[in-house]
Amino acid sequence: MTAPFIFVGTHRVKPGKCEDFMKYFTEFCTGVVEPNEPRLHSFFGYTAPNSDLVTVVQVHPDAESMQHHLQMLGEKVRATSEFTDFESLEIYGELNDALREWLPYVTEGIQFTHHAIHWGGFSRLQSATDT
């Protein structure tokens, strides 16, 4: 089995923008991402009580799915800068050429870790094409 491509981005919500961002993110997930990205396995946002940090976890079947996400939804993703500042990024999995070109633009000034080597594991997730 090929390992999935996992994107974990942490964002700091700007003061006074939490409620607006939560509404934007919820609508973005169900109204934009879910209907337009059938290959995307999972897309979730997490936070802790009384925290201004939000972590977005995306599980893609491969780097091409992540690239599709950026191409299709780039403007919507950039619009989150109204509500948040990018803090850190972790990527798990092999990058393709397009993502290698993209990374320097988004990782400048933030903490970035790339975990390229997959040792093993499994997933019980099924893609939309498997059902």
Description:
This protein has 131 residues and is an alpha+beta fold. The protein has a single domain (5-115), classed as Alpha-Beta Plaits, CATH 3.30.70. It is 35% helix and 27% strand. It has a 5-stranded mixed beta sheet with strand order 2-3-1-4-5.
Would you list the SSEs in sequence order as H and E? Answer: EHEEHEHE
Gyration radius, in Å: 15 Å
Q: From the 3D structure, determine the CATH topology.
A: Alpha-Beta Plaits
Number of strands: 5
Main sheet summary: 5 strands, mixed
CATH uppermost class: Alpha Beta
Sheet-strand content, in percent, reads 25-35%
| CATH architecture descriptor name | 2-Layer Sandwich
The number of helices is: 3
Give the distance, in angstroms, between the N- and C-terminal Cα atoms: 17 Å
Structural class: alpha+beta
Average pLDDT figure: 90
Give the proportion of residues in helices.
Answer: 25-40%
3D shape = globular
Q: Could you name the ranges where pLDDT drops below 50 across 5 or more consecutive residues?
A: none
Spatial order of the strands forming the largest sheet: 2-3-1-4-5
How many domain regions? 1
